[in-house]
Amino acid sequence: MLLNFAHDGHAGAVDVRIGSNDDPSALACGPGSLGLPVCTATVTSGAAGYHVMCGWVQLVRSSDNRSGGSAFEIDPFALFADADWPYAFYGHLPTLFDAPSRSSRQDMDWLAHAFLAKTPLEKASRRVVALTGFSWGFTIRDGEVASRSPAPLTLADWQAHVPLLRERNPGWDFGSNS
Q1: In-domain check, residue 154
Q2: Which contiguous run of DSSP H or E holds residue 38?
Q3: Structural domain of residue 153, as residue ranges?
Q4: Per the domain annotation, does 176 fall within a domain?
Q5: DSSP state of 173
Q6: Are 56 and 41 in contact (CB under 8 A)?
Q7: What's the rounded Cα separation, in Å, for the pair 161 and 59?
Q8: Is 104 a member of any domain?
Q9: Which residues are 132's β-sheet partners?
């Protein structure tokens, strides 16, 4: 799936690819990720330099999480799980890579909302502006894994996550994207 976006007069795109994790060791994953989907979202842009500094904010709703699948949770990069930092990945044209892992193959539903976002450098505050987003995920039924195809998300989807993002990252502004 290809998602187009624009920011500050520059066009960009995100190429989202979902595959199966058929060789966990090649991806530095544990054995619990075997057969589960792998998501790679690559950013391209006609802009350069600091114009393409951005990051990925990902939230996950899973029937095996604390809420039993009724609520999304922030999916941080494990090394920064306790930091007041909304991004799973951040950098120059950052790639989102995620390879979920589960030791059990009990029936479950797993859904991620991934947003490419920018923190404008000219602002004094730490502001997060969503540029584009997509959903992806998988289900397990009777031990069989089925990937969920990626689908575009809207600004309304982003806004639905803002209360949680504000609660978990009080040092950041998740206000209007205008």
Answers
A1: yes
A2: strand 37-45
A3: 2-168
A4: no
A5: B
A6: yes
A7: 8
A8: yes
A9: 116
SS3 23: coil
DSSP per residue over 52-120, as a string? GEEEEEEEEEETTSTTTTSS-EE---GGGTTSS---SEEEESPPEEE----S---SEEEEEEEEEEE--
With a CB cutoff of 8 Å and minimum separation 6, the contacts of 72 are 59, 60, 61, 113, 161, 164
The amino acid occupying position 72 is F
Count of domains in the chain?
A: 1
Written as tens digits, the pLDDT of the chain (178 aa) is 999 999 888 999 999 999 999 999 999 999 999 999 999 999 999 999 999 999 999 999 999 877 677 899 988 677 777 778 899 999 999 999 999 999 989 999 999 999 999 988 876 678 999 999 999 999 999 999 999 999 999 999 999 999 999 999 998 999 665 4
**In this structure, what DSSP letter does residue 154 have?**
-
Residue 158: count other Cβ atoms within 10 Å of its Cβ: 23
User: Please, what sign has the CA dihedral across residues 54, 60, 65, 66?
Assistant: positive
Three-class secondary structure of residue 164 per DSSP: helix
Q: Is residue 35 part of a domain?
A: yes
Measure the CA–CA gap between 42 and 2, rounded to whole angstroms.
10
